[in-house]
Amino acid sequence: MENTDYERIGTTDVYLSETALVPTLIPDEAKAGHVGVVYFEDVEDIAFDVVSALKREKILVYECKIKKSENEEDDIKQIKSVPEYVRYLIGVGCGKINMLCSYFATINAIDYMMFVTAPSSDRILYSTPALKEACCPKYVVADRKILDAAPKTLIAAGWGIALSQPLKAFERCVARKLSTEKSGRTESIAESFKRELAGNSLQMTHDTGELFWFLMRLSDRNRKQNFKGGVDSFCEVMQKSYKLRHRGEYMFVASYVLWAYYRLFLKSRCEDTLLPPDKMKSMKLLETKCGLEFNLLLKRIDFLTINGYFRIKYILDEYREDLIGILDSIDLEKSQRRWRRLYEDAGFWLKENFTTKELLSIMALCGEISGGILGYAKASGALEDYI
After folding, report:
1. What phi and psi, each to the nearest 5 degrees, are found at residue 93?
2. Checking CA distances to 74, which of 80, 95, 137, 277 falls within 20 to 30 Å?
3. Which residues contact 315 (CB under 8 A, 6 or more apart)?
4. Are the CB atoms for 251 and 215 separated by under 8 Å?
5. Residues with Cβ < 8 Å from 125, sequence gap 6 or more?
6. Are both 102 and 157 inside the same structural domain?
7. pTM value?
């Protein structure tokens, strides 16, 4: 098929082509039965085109239109309604629909394909966390025209993820320096950041295809890394607190706030003058304000020992100027101006959704469930006034 780009990423064959490619990838044995097409209501028009392409090839189709809900269990109940005679599954949508397809395909021991409708997620090559050893999509297909026509909020979500990667690379470098595990590498933290950034950054353009490929490769890398830093924790809590926007949008907001705070904290050298934090107050607020269960928080929170605290303090003091230099090189100030212009309202939705005080309060609470600089700042008492 003309204008088809292909790459094998991990165990998945990924195509950037057109909708007509979908029927050609379905194995013959699956065509003998029914092929299920699963989608949310908001992409019904795109799903109709996929179903039409299948029917033109005389393939029997079972459609499952899922009503979006805030409860993941409700979504799983809906996809369980797909009958057992469906022997192949196609998910039309992005990250959330992929998780549902992964769940259904795993419990029914069938393969599935993802037809991506927007470059908005870095979780297309993930498997559902609801099951152990769950499967990932065998194929991923995207149509160039559909990606270009995707809603601005979804494209902004994709770019929010992409533009957050340099700060996430910074957090991984700091985590390695603070780790008690010995590493065979003797490189400087600047060299470590440069290596970590390779393949994990993308200059902002209008090319949705380029963004799509970046997110697919990132999805495979993130699935293998299993690292959760301050950006991920902040983003997770914002999603639970607001539930209004897409994960990628919250990720960029979290990255921008943390980038500014990390620079301020590292330049201040104030931690020796502060009162210790109130952990119980923070945990209760994480439960009441952010919906995180108290019992689960007890498992996630890292109670620093005196030796651990001063070990981290010593390491940060040793590398303080290098860390500030890396943060200055990231320059999310410039990125946020370009990111806001992706929206038709030039990003004014940000003022309507939350205040600076609310963001700083959530950031401070996230220090309880984060390691690295944010966790150390919370342990030092530097975030207490924001709560």
Report:
1. 150, -145
2. 137
3. 177, 178
4. no
5. 9, 10, 12, 136, 137, 140, 216, 219, 220, 223
6. no
7. 0.91
Q: How far is the C-alpha of 145 from the C-alpha of 124, rounded, in Å?
A: 19
Two structure tokens written together for 109: 């021991």
Residue 275: its pLDDT value, please? 64
Tokens for 246? 């897409």
Overall size of the chain counted in residues: 387
The 10s digit of each residue's pLDDT in 111-162 is: 999 999 999 999 999 888 878 889 999 999 999 999 999 999 999 999 999 9
Q: Which residues of the chain have pLDDT under 50?
A: none
Instruction: Work out how many domains the chain is built from and give that number.
Output: 2
Query: Which residues lie closer than 8 Å to 384 by C-beta, 6 or more apart?
Result: 274, 275, 277, 278, 364
* Domain membership of residue 42 as a residue range: 5-148
Residues 234 and 340 in one domain: yes
If you ran DSSP here, which 8-state letter would residue 370 be given? -
**Residue 91: is it exposed, middle or buried by C-beta count within 10 angstroms (0-12/13-18/19+)?**
buried
Sign of CA dihedral 128, 104, 116, 336: negative
**How confident is the model over 273-324, as pLDDT tens digits?**
566 677 777 778 777 777 777 666 655 555 556 567 788 888 888 999 999 9
